[in-house]
Amino acid sequence: MTGIKTKPPANTQRVMRVADLPQDRTIASYELHNGDDKPFIVSLCKRQRQVMDLLIAGPVYCASPVRLSDVVHILKREIGLEVDTKFYPGNPITGSGAYGVYFLDSKVTRINRSEVAA
Question: Where are the domains of the chain?
């Protein structure tokens, strides 16, 4: 987690409802590469797949009524996905507090089913 004093990137995604998530929930495979570690393959479906696809598309606001943080925590702890949370200052004039944005640090490549060896 890092604290910074700028605004998040313009492409930061906000998820206010389930309809804002990627719609495909079927199983998909991804190759993950963390730094100098050996790449590994994971298969995800349902909400985990939706959140992975969301993170691949770009940074994501942490606060969400859809409870993204639960899934991000599972992806980090159970499969080893590297996700950084950067914090931004709120607006003291309006009373809004600091907030976080998730950034994908792992290199993640979606593996197409046709590319997987039988």
Answer: 2-115
Q: pTM of the entire structure?
A: 0.85
Amino acid letter, 104? L
Query: What is the residue-wise DSSP string for the chain?
Result: -EE-SSPPPTT-B---SGGGS-S--S-EEEEEE-TTSPPEEEEE-HHHHHHHHHHHHS-EES--TT-HHHHHHHHHHHH---EEEEEE---TTTT---EEEEEE-SEEEEEPGGGS--
Q: Report pLDDT digits (tens) over 83-99.
A: 999 999 988 888 888 89
User: 13-61 pLDDT, tens per residue?
Assistant: 999 999 999 999 999 999 999 988 899 999 999 999 999 999 999 999 9
What token pair was written down for 118?
Answer: 């039988």
Residue with tokens 């409870």: 67
